Amino acid sequence: MVILPLASVSIGKCAEMEAVYLRTDVYDGWRLGVQTWTFNRFTFYEAVDKTASLGLDWLEAYPHGQKLSEDKPDIIFGHNMPEEIKKQVKQKLADAGVRLCNYGVVQLPNDENECRKVFEFAKEMGIETLVSEPPEEAFDLIDRLCQEYQINIAIHNHPKPSHYWDPNMVLEVCKGRSNRIGACADTGHWVRSGINPVEALKKLKGRIVSLHLKDISEFGNREAHDVIWGTGVCDIKAMLEELHRQNFKGVFSIEYEHNWEKSLPEIRKSVEYFNEVAGKLKPTGWRDLYTSNLSNCIFKPGSWIMEDGVLTRKGGGNIWTKEKFGDFILDLEFKVAKGSNSGVFIRTGDIADFVQTGIEVQIHDTTDGTSRGACGAIYDCLAPTKNMTKKTGEWNHYTITCKANKIYVVFNGEKIIDMDVNLWTEAHKNPDGTANKFNTAVRDMPRIGHIGLQDHGDPIWFRNIKINPAPCQEARIKPL
């Protein structure tokens, strides 16, 4: 779940990077995230953490009533937060690897001072789209502010009899307006109002800014509830195909309004369905490294288990991909217990002799006592440039890139390894003259092989393990 700031790269395209983050969305030009109303029984910070646990990079926040955090229950998230709290929110989002891209449904009255407060907040927080249901007389003002701040307005449709329940009304207020004015297509509310969502999307072609994507249980019933995507009456697949036909680019916000306190498993299945459909339409190359049932892995039965999106070591050996990888970008999160030792093995030629035929990116809560055994090191070969390990029990984030003779490791947002394996020309010797354990010069080790997660006998957890086995040629990480 890594994020490249939009100012540094075109959405869905590879370019030389000013930063070391990448997006991992499966469709070139689509971004799947969460509307925090989904988690309105929880604090904003909890909603951020839940979004991160789903492997999603994007967030749409709502402005009315969500407590900021357990330790600040008197602070309500929104554009009226004190400046110091806004700074803390930015840090929380950065730590979680989640970007706040949309905000709403927020009131935008025909009052310039009140509207400017919202636009200033959006500018400060990096929000690109405000979701709202403004009064018609406010659109001259709003359009002018959209141009001034370079921020979009997406008109939301609550169910009938709300003012914008019919897409024809949205089109009416968009007439003569700039392309920064458009629709936030709430697909579930359309169905509750008796509107076919695919036909509504067709009608709004060219004016769709973002979506509150839903699948619900019953057509034409205002009380119908959300269900796992692909199992309801909204026809998610047909909607995605229509948006693909329109060449839509933008944000899909999950707004799951059912089973409020225990919705994560249902949302996770919805994300899987979205990725399955969207990933076939215009793929970026990103996919899960492991299937949910681990059927594409080599491991001793029962030694690893995948539950609620978390891969947990149970004891009994390493877990390996059946597939072999050469050049790739691997993105994952891990969590360790006190003193835990593990590792990510890449390009492993022989899993029966993985120590001598694979390169290990070390995982540890600190270090095994040596600089080349610290967390983030290329084990016994190259120490990380800095210690980026979080507190024991917190989720850490690796992005490991292999491209020909180069290996890069980004650890919790900082690039800490830039390795040219061609410099390791002798067995048992590193370029700086220190010794290593390898019977073969690292330069001569396999350039293609299995990826494995190590069972070192200690507790270890992984989640959001994604790979792009064919990153575009232009994607490069600048040297340290």
Describe the protein's architecture and organization:
This protein has helices at residues 44-53, 83-96, 112-125, 139-149, 167-174, 187-192, 197-203, 236-245, 264-281, 354-357, and strands at 30-35, 58-61, 67-69, 72-76, 99-104, 129-132, 152-156, 181-186, 208-213, 250-254, 287-288, 297-298, 304-307, 310-313, 319-321, 328-336, 341-348, 359-364, 396-403, 406-411, 414-420, 450-453, 460-468. The longest helix is centred in the middle third of the chain and has 18 residues, at 264-281. β9 (208-213), α8 (236-245) and β10 (250-254) form a beta-alpha-beta unit. 21% of the residues lie in helices and 25% in strands. It is α/β, with parallel strands linked by helices. Residues 1-20 and 472-480 have low confidence and may be disordered. The protein contains ten helices and 23 strands. The protein has two domains: 25-283, Divalent-metal-dependent TIM barrel enzymes (TIM Barrel, Alpha-Beta Barrel), CATH 3.20.20; 288-468, Exo-inulinase, domain 1 (Jelly Rolls, Sandwich).
Q: How would you concisely characterize the structure shown here?
A:
The protein has 480 residues and is of the alpha/beta class.
Order of strands, main sheet, comes to: 1-2-5-6-7-8-9-10
Question: Could you name the ranges where pLDDT drops below 50 across 5 or more consecutive residues?
Answer: 1-20, 472-480
CATH class of the largest domain: Alpha Beta
Quick check: average pLDDT? Answer: 93
Terminal-residue CA separation: 22 Å
Q: What value does the Rg take, in angstroms? A: 24 Å
Structural class: alpha/beta
Structure characteristics:
480 residues, TIM Barrel, Jelly Rolls, eight-stranded parallel barrel, eight-stranded antiparallel sheet, 23 strands, 21% helix
